[in-house]
Predict the structure.
Amino acid sequence: MLKSLIASSAIVFAAAVLGGASAEPAGARNIVLVHGAWVDGSGWQGVYDQLKSKGYNVTIVQHPTASLDEDVAYVRRALALQDGPTVLVGHSYGGVILSQVGNDPKVKSLVYVTAFAPDAGESVLDLIADLPEGVPVPPILPPRRKSRNRPGRPSPATI
């Protein structure tokens, strides 16, 4: 279900932002995809394939979801490897990482795909602490089943 949501959201992103084969988001040919918590970068594979077929340089960051600082460091390393202007795309918790990395000079735009978008100094818990009456609290829980990917074995499209 989650992979379907990510893929559907990302396809909408690709259609809206990238448009035709000659469109370049924010003048960038580089796109870095950042997964959320309790999932891994494999959820971006369909989006990766579509963007690569349009000629974009695409990187999927396989951060460990160990700590925000460590996850940010993974994305910063992936960003440092890009050869020019870059669009950062994050899903769910990946949006928190984007908010930390988004001020890098290489970043030309940030895309939050059903993601948290905190201000500087805000956490996810801050964002959900005072929701209006009747608004359900997002489930911030680990998944019920284990990932099919084994640690240390990312796909070739990941960093």
In short: The radius of gyration is 15 Å. The CA atoms of residues 10 and 16 lie 10 Å apart. The chain has one domain: 2-129.
